[in-house]
Design a protein that fits this description.
heterodimer, A: 831 residues, alpha+beta, Beta-Lactamase, Helix Hairpins, 23 strands, 50% helix, B: 207 residues, 4-stranded antiparallel β-sheet
């Protein structure tokens, strides 16, 4: 593989190789981290649980043990308190106090002397019989052989003394106690209104013994257990008393049991000194409920702020007697081990798993690198091959032998490359061929254009002439090279025409083809009004350049992609043509006038001769009746002549002032028939009427009648006085159709197209003016109707007059348009 | 304990030795009319005989405990609401009927009118509930034999004299015998229902 300097993508883009390595790393790393986290969390939870439960059990057991220890101590004290000698002595003291005669029991100044540490007084108390008895009990003289007081108990007991029912000191083993105790809480608690109760006092610092102590006070009941006769009080050094029991319970380096009271004051702890409160006061309520349990606390009570597991349990029996009641303070064991130690195994595990994870990551990265290399190398090869194909430079086939999809892909590339090569080769040939064709086409186009006799110019949007054909060059005398020449330098025109041309040019830029006809057709127009714009149309399409007149036409040329369309201008030299046309029109006019004159002359001749003949008759006639008859004939002839003249005038002039009135078509039909019968011989003609009823139409009565008369006369003349004339009216939606059908010979096809032309007639000279149908059609169209003539040669002719019911105006648009198209040529000929 | 029992034994022997003499003196005293406080006939001193007072008190105590046992403890336990247990303070439970009686006795003692009552037995779980005096011991023995009648008598502590009546206390509910037959500290484990388990000792000062 040749290491081409591949176009290095921007720095931020990740290559395929990095992506593969990264994804392999992530695939390995995410489960590792998740698994590790879950294992750590689960492990921690289990350690919490297991430790908590173990600590709770341990605390409960320790509490039971301490409870038993205290119960044993209380039993020892009870042994003394139940001693009959003690009871008897105290009963005696009670009775003596009640006996007013006997005051010998307690010397009155004994208290003062005791306070002042008088040796006699001290001796009288500490040396009396009861004190000796206390000593004996304490040293075990009254104990059973196997129940000797342990040394610890003896040494931890700092004071042991008896008071009577008044709280006065009766006997003591030491000289420390005060003389009166009836005001102390412990004494009142144990005395309990003479009912008596065990009273264990919370830990406090005793100034006499210089140590933290707790006390046990037991009431001494009388022999009937009826009332309290004295109180036995024992002061015990807490540290000394409990340490043998608590300090031995150790586990691990930091795990231990301690004893606290309800206020969180340490009674005994291997680590903390007795008497100090727990470092975190908020811990106290958590660990001093009345039932065993364990808690996950935010501090350890020993000054540390780590989250700790603490097991705890109350001392059930002892707590019942502490401070005289089971609600006022209780004692609890407290089991704790340092979190560091507790979690050491899982920390250890965590460290190891992390190390293994790191090793796994390194392995993953290396494997990823190798795998990515194996994938990426062929891909790069393919990429370079694709680039080479893109440049058309790939010659040798790609060689990849990885035996997988990449190899297939490489094969596909090779196949594609060979196909592309083949395709390109064919394409080049075709392009050559097409180019030649285009050149030939262009050449031929040029030649065709040059061959055209009309000047043709191609102009771009900036009015620059791009092409001029041979004819134009000749016409406008232009030399061959003419780059960047403006249209108006070639065509010398006056400024108004230039302006008009520019406007047209701009319009042509927007619309593909413009012809003057289309613009004219936009507005419907009364076809009977003589067209006035043929002049302007001529002006529009014509240019006067020098002595020549040109007709011109714009056309649009599709542009090449990316270029603006160009516009072509075709000019046609009509100088000679228009001159010829003028001459032609003149000749036609002259000819028509001749025919017209002959027609009019002929038409007028007959009545005129009649008038002359009648006039001559009148001159010689004597009979008045005959004269009058002749005069009537003269009038009739005059009227006929007037009618003929009116007919002629009707072609050119119109009476447009009157308004159409509603008529009944059938009536008009009948009247027209009467008039026609008067005009032509119709004796042998059978009239057949098929009327739809009273059909209303809107028209000028005279004109409509004239049109109908013209049609009937035509029909009668066609039948040469014999045949059948069928008159039909029919009414459909909005159209009224009047039909006049004859049974004459019909109109030949060659005449059928000309019958509406003015002056066209098949009749002989003097029989018809050739204007009858023309006039009839004009009239009918004026009412918005239409006249149609259908004829089959040898079978007759049918004239259909279609009118709209009661409507003087036809719907605007189509009808007028077609009418205009038909009538268009007429004015130019007639004018 | 053996030591103490020994003491009592010697005391009993002494009693038997001096007993007849005391009896003679007692009779002589009655004869010569020395006013001596007596439990039976002293209508001039108190309105009601101490025996009657003790009977009344005993009736009240019995009724209270019956109601507590049947209507509270048994019912609550049957309905599974709360049970009775010895360490009821810690266990959030009801006091046992025997504890109920003992505690009410202590309340009476602490309230101070002078009357005392407590449960005693010859085989108590805790030694403090054993008979305190020879009189009590004898009375309990007597009640085993004849439980229907209380044992009464005048006893003294020093110079103070008291009237004491001891009534037989039977196993009123199965809870009593189950507990006493299974408790680790119980010295006797073959109690049956309605057995005399001990007595209620009512002490009234005679002053």
């Amino acid at each position: 593989m040749t290491e081409n300097p591949t176009p290095s993508p921007p720095d931020t883009r990740w290559g395929l190789k990095s992506k593969i390595i990264l994804s392999m790393l992530l695939v390995g790393l995410i489960p590792l981290v998740v698994g590790l986290g879950m294992a750590f969390w689960q492990g921690s939870q289990e350690i919490w649980e297991i430790s908590g439960e173990s600590f709770e059990t341990l605390a409960t057991e320790a509490a039971r043990k301490l409870d038993l220890l205290l119960a044993e101590e209380i039993a020892h004290a009870a042994h003394i308190a139940n001693d009959p000698t003690v009871i008897h002595e105290l009963e005696r003291r009670r009775d003596a106090r009640r006996d007013p005669k006997n005051h010998t029991m307690v010397p009155p100044d004994l208290e003062r002397r005791w306070m002042s540490r008088d040796p006699d007084a001290i001796k009288s108390v500490t040396g009396n019989r009861l004190s000796a008895l206390l000593h004996e009990h304490f040293t075990g003289a009254h104990s059973a052989p196997g129940e000797m007081l342990p040394h610890v108990i003896r040494s931890s007991t700092k004071m042991l003394f008896l008071t009577d029912a008044q709280g006065t000191l009766v006997a003591s083993m030491t000289e420390h106690p005060a003389f009166r105790h009836d005001e102390t809480r412990w004494w009142q608690g144990a005395f309990n209104k003479a009912a008596g109760k065990l009273y264990i006092e919370d830990i406090r610092f005793d100034n006499q013994v210089k140590a933290y102590v707790f006390t046990i006070s037991l009431p001494v009941m009388d022999s009937l257990r009826y009332e309290v006769v004295g109180v036995l009080h024992r002061v015990i050094d807490a540290e000394e008393f409990f340490s043998p029991a608590t300090h031995v319970i150790r586990f691990g380096k930091t795990g231990h049991v301690m004893l606290i009271d309800a206020n969180g004051t340490v009674i005994s702890c291997p680590l903390l000194p007795t008497g100090v409160p727990l470092s975190d006061p908020s811990l106290v309520p958590l660990v001093t409920p009345q039932h065993p349990g364990w808690v996950q606390a935010s501090s350890d009570g020993h000054g540390g702020q780590d989250t700790s597991v603490i097991g705890f349990a109350p001392l059930p029996k002892t707590s019942r007697a502490t401070n005289g009641s089971d609600t006022d303070g209780s004692w609890h064991t407290f089991v704790w081990q340092s979190s560091d130690e507790l979690f050491a195994p899982i920390q250890h595990l965590f460290t190891w798993v992390t190390v293994f994870g790191a090793v796994a990551l390194v392995l993953l990265a290396s494997l990823g690198y190798i795998a990515a290399g194996r994938i990426v190398t062929p891909v790069r090869q393919l990429q370079q091959a694709a680039q080479a194909i893109g440049r058309g430079e790939l010659r040798a086939p790609i060689q990849i032998n990885s035996g997988d999809e990449l190899e297939d892909l490489a094969d596909e590339f090779n196949r594609m490359n060979s196909q592309l090569k083949a395709a390109f080769a064919g394409l080049t040939d075709q392009v050559k061929l097409k180019t030649q064709e285009v050149q030939v086409l262009q050449k031929s186009t040029d030649q065709i254009l040059d061959a055209v006799p009309n000047p043709i110019l191609l102009i771009d949007a900036q009015e620059i002439v791009r092409y001029i054909n041979q004819a134009a060059r000749k016409s406008f005398k232009i030399q061959e090279p003419m780059p960047g020449t403006s249209l108006f330098t070639i065509l010398p025109l006056d400024p108004t025409v230039q302006k008009r041309l520019r406007a047209e040019f701009r319009v042509n830029g927007a619309t593909p083809v413009i012809t003057s006809d289309i613009e004219r057709e936009k507005v419907p127009r009364d076809p009977l009004v003589p067209s006035t714009d043929h002049e302007s149309a001529g002006r529009r399409a014509e240019l006067h350049i020098g002595p020549r007149i040109y007709q011109y036409q714009w056309f649009r040329l599709p542009a090449r992609p990316g270029e603006e369309d160009s516009i072509g201008l075709v000019l046609r030299d009509t100088t000679d043509e228009s001159r010829l046309q003028d001459q032609l029109v003149q000749a036609e006019k002259t000819g028509s006038l001749g025919v017209l004159t002959a027609g009019i002359g002929h038409e007028l001749n007959n009545p005129l001769f009649g008038v002359i003949g009648l006039g001559e008759v009148i001159q010689d006639e004597q009979d008045l009746e005959h004269i009058k008859s002749c005069a009537r004939d003269i009038v009739a002839h005059g009227r006929r002549m007037a009618t003929i003249i009116r007919d002629f005038a009707g072609i050119a002039t119109k009476d447009a002032s009157a308004k159409p009135v509603p008529l009944l078509l059938e009536r008009e039909f009948d009247q027209a028939l009467v008039t026609a019968q008067m005009t032509v011989e119709m004796k042998d003609i059978m009239i057949h009427k098929v009327y739809a009823g009273n059909t209303p139409v809107l028209a000028f009565p005279d004109e409509l009648r004239q049109a109908l008369v013209n049609l009937m006369i035509n029909a009668a003349q066609a039948m040469k006085g014999a045949g059948t004339l069928t008159l039909t009216t029919a009414l459909s939606d909005h159209t009224v159709t009047a039909t006049i059908a004859d049974s004459g010979p019909g109109i030949s096809k060659q005449h059928l197209s000309k019958i509406f032309d003015p002056f066209f007639t098949t009749k002989g000279q003097g029989e018809g003016s050739g204007l009858g149908l023309t006039v009839a059609r004009r009239i009918i169209r004026k009412f918005g109707g239409e006249l149609r003539i259908e004829s089959v040669e040898g079978r007759g002719t049918t004239c259909s007059v279609m009118l709209s019911t009661n409507s003087p105006k036809a719907p605007e648009g189509a009808l007028w348009t077609t009418a205009a198209a038909h009538s268009e040529p007429e004015p130019s000929h007639s004018s | 304990m053996d030591n103490r029992r020994g003491t009592f034994r010697t005391g009993t022997i002494a009693f038997f030795l001096v007993g007849p003499w005391i009896g003679i003196f007692f009779l002589l005293g009655l004869w010569i009319g020395i006013p001596f406080p007596s439990a039976k006939e002293s209508p001039g001193l108190v309105g009601i005989a101490p025996k009657k007072v003790a009977d009344y008190i005993h009736a009240v105590i019995e009724a209270d405990r019956s109601i507590y046992t049947t209507e509270i403890v048994n019912r609550m336990q049957e309905n599974g609401i709360v049970t009775a247990a010895e360490h009821w303070e810690q266990d959030n439970a009801l006091p046992l009927p025997a504890q109920f009686l003992q505690r009410s006795g202590r309340l009476v003692a602490e309230s101070g009118p002078g009357i005392r009552y407590r449960l005693i037995g010859l085989s108590p779980m805790y030694q403090r509930n054993g008979p305190a005096t020879e009189f009590e011991r004898k009375a309990l023995t007597e009640l085993q034999r004849q439980p229907d009648r209380p044992v009464t008598g005048v006893v003294s502590s020093g110079k103070k004299q008291y009237f004491q009546a001891i009534y037989a206390d039977r196993a009123v509910s199965s809870a009593c015998i189950t507990c006493h037959n299974s408790h680790p500290l119980s010295p006797k484990r073959d109690f049956k229902l309605s057995d005399v388990m001990g007595g209620i000792a009512i002490t009234i000062p005679l002053e």
